[in-house]
Design goal:
With about 300 residues, the protein is an alpha/beta fold. About 40% of the residues lie in helices and about 20% in strands. It has a 7-stranded parallel β-sheet with strand order 3-2-1-4-5-6-11, sandwiched between helices. A two-stranded parallel sheet has the order 7-10. It has a two-stranded parallel sheet with strand order 8-13. The longest helix is centred in the N-terminal third of the chain and has 20 residues. It binds nicotinamide-adenine-dinucleotide (NAD).
Length: about 300
């Protein structure tokens, strides 16, 4: 039975991936330092190693005997990467190189989390993987660094890698303090308490929201493709893919749907626009559809319903 290592498996996205792998009948080992992840998120079938992803000895131990590694551990807060630049860098980039290094001796395939933050503000265009990368934060710069090292891992060290650029992920177990789709958790909590939802600026900003179960399915599809290539004796390759729906949602519209689904009247208040707030973020999912043979299938309203029902 294949065993997969999931770093960051006690976190929001990682714990949904673990659920999926367990459902598929795989053995799962998780490496997590529990800095933001919670043990109660974790399926009881998974083995948990508590430790730091930038610690070579523990990552080497965690990698022993695994068929593939999903690397999701990160300090996922853009704000933290500004305040604790070096600390976040150690987890986000050094941690990733540590994973690649540990994968090297047996050429273990690694699927890792990148982010739409690598694009920065490439406004007014549907972003394909060919769009210019202009990160605006240390977080985005480190994710881009992961992609560059993912290339080196494959070309110089024979480690097959795939980087998935997640857009705005939402769903049950998301920390409302997250700087990504936190807007959904915050709006949902406000609506359920009968309080007004606060939007920054005119609420006409758009985001590409993708449900967490769809993200887990993309991670597994990417791993399956890497393992397939390895079985066919193909040389180790590296690639990056957007993980998105290709559907823009306006923040104002999101508030209205959440209010309707929670059975409350829409109460919206506006505060001044935040400096540096990206106006539009929209991904092009066609490369994942073509090469990973997968697309997001959860409609926003269904995903929101599932999220609200777990609050
Ligand atoms: P999360 O904070 O819920 O999960 C991250 C997990 O990593 C947590 O369990 C945390 O305890 C663990 N971790 C942090 N530092 C660690 C370290 N040094 N050693 C070991 N474990 C450590 O975040 P998430 O939203 O589930 O994000 C998962 C991945 O997806 C991250 O790489 C993040 O950058 C990326 N991502 C998330 C989104 C999103 O919308 N949530 C968007 C783009 C990219």
């Amino acid at each position: 039975m294949p065993t997969y290592l999931v770093t960051g498996g006690c976190g929001f996205i990682g714990s949904h991936l673990v659920d999926l792998l367990v459902r598929q009948g795989h053995r799962v080992r998780v490496l997590d330092d529990l800095s933001s992840g919670r043990t109660h998120n974790l399926a009881p079938e998974a083995e948990l190693m508590i430790g730091d992803v930038a610690d070579v000895a523990i990552v080497t131990l965690a990698m022993k005997g695994v068929t593939g590694c999903f690397h999701l551990a990160a300090n996922a807060s853009v704000q933290a990467s500004t305040e604790d630049w070096l600390g976040a860098h150690r987890t986000n980039l050094t941690g990733t190189i540590t994973v690649f290094e540990a994968a090297r001796s047996r050429a273990v395939p690694v699927v890792y989390a990148s982010s739409a933050a690598v694009y920065g503000d490439s406004a007014d265009q549907r972003l394909s993987e060919m769009a210019p990368t202009r990160p605006l934060s240390a977080y985005g710069a480190d994710k881009l660094g992961c992609e560059l090292h993912g290339r080196i891992a494959a070309s110089l060290h024979g480690v097959p890698t795939a980087g998935l650029r997640f857009f705005n992920v939402y769903g049950p177990r998301q920390d409302p303090a997250s700087s990504y789709a936190g807007v959904i958790s915050i709006f949902a909590a406000r609506a359920l308490e009968g309080e007004a939802m606060t939007m920054h600026g005119d609420g006409e900003q758009t985001r590409d929201f993708i449900f967490v179960a769809d993200v887990a399915a993309h991670l597994v599809a990417a791993m399956d493709r890497l393992l397939e290539r390895q079985r066919d004796g193909k040389a180790a390759a590296s690639a990056v893919f957007n993980v998105c729906t290709g559907q823009p949602t306006r923040i104002r519209e999101l508030a209205a749907v959440i209010a309707r689904l929670s059975g409350r009247p829409l109460q919206l208040q506006s505060t001044p626009a935040r400096t540096g707030d990206i106006r539009r973020s929209l991904g092009d999912p066609s490369a994942a559809i073509r090469h990973l043979r997968i697309a997001a299938t959860t409609a926003l309203e269904d995903g929101l319903r599932q999220t609200l029902s777990r609050l």
